[in-house]
């Protein structure tokens, strides 16, 4: 079975050779490698062509700059393989990655396979691999995905997943930031059976300051990310999965409070406007919070924070300052002594 490996490229000349070499080093050889140069102004496009001249499995598409979603969709349009996977041009795959994931799909009859990834910083690496394999029926993987449980690094990214091409029928990356968050959500929703490999086959570079992923809270958080999280909950309700919608909502409102704290402490020139918008989003849940914060993964402490916020945003910020300045450091010291 041919695996289509998709890579989008834009001005990453300093990173991409390592990434391409990691694909070429795969022990699974039946690959078509599609590289979309999204109008790079550095030598990225030339590097793509250089590798295509060396390996006939590589196809290069040069297009005018249209952004990440446009480049990803151009990749999808060119795919002819039975399976699809992705790699970012500043990351790298372990040699066994594709072979292990294809084997997992064929052995289990699953539609989609996800794997753990190794987080690579300039001065350290985080890898919590256990070597375990987990199989999921129906929407079990969706539940695990929504929980954002760090023991299972399923996440929103497309690059730690390999899946059957038919799952993508009619599915596109939306023209917006966080496009992979939307795409991955619906991709997982379409999978009738899935498998997760708790082995870090993918190396995710965490220290690129110009990466969209590392941009932190930015204007697109308000225009794209938050509306998508609300859309996610609405979709689950429409599908009759009230239980999953509650989990989605719990993590949404928890995240909104984190954003409110971060923005309040920031030098954001539009701080007042953004705090008002966040306040509106948070208070949109009034009347539903008791049920939301009763979902299986909810923590009582998070509900206490919300109640303080609803009583007084100023009191909430003071409470968070005391918590971060004094309470958390004390807990960390106690934990360190107990090791």
CATH topology of the largest domain: Spore Coat Polysaccharide Biosynthesis Protein SpsA, Chain A
The sequence of SSEs as H and E is: EHEHEHEEHEEEHEHEHHHHHH
Low-pLDDT stretches are 208-215
Distance between the termini: 48 Å
Number of helices: 12
| Main sheet record | 10 strands, mixed
The shape, in one word, is globular
CATH structural architecture of the largest domain: Alpha-Beta Complex
Give me a quick take on this structure.
The protein is α/β, with parallel strands linked by helices.
What does this structure look like?
This protein has 339 residues and is an alpha/beta fold. It has two domains: 203 residues, Spore Coat Polysaccharide Biosynthesis Protein SpsA, Chain A (Alpha-Beta Complex), CATH 3.90.550.10; 119 residues. It has twelve helices and ten strands. Strands 1, 2, 3, 4, 5, 6, 7, 8, 9 and 10 form a ten-stranded mixed β-sheet that branches. The longest helix is centred in the last third of the chain and has 25 residues. It is globular, with a radius of gyration of 21 Å. About 2% of the residues have low confidence.
SSE layout and pairings?
Layout: E1 3-9, H1 16-24, E2 31-38, H2 44-54, E3 58-63, H3 68-78, E4 83-86, E5 92-93, H4 97-108, E6 112-120, E7 125-126, E8 133-137, H5 140-147, E9 161-164, H6 179-190, E10 193-205, H7 219-238, H8 242-264, H9 271-283, H10 289-292, H11 300-311, H12 313-337
Parallel strand pairs: 1-2, 1-4, 2-3, 6-10
Antiparallel strand pairs: 4-9, 5-10, 6-7, 6-9, 8-10
Helix pairs in contact: 5-8, 7-8, 8-9, 11-12
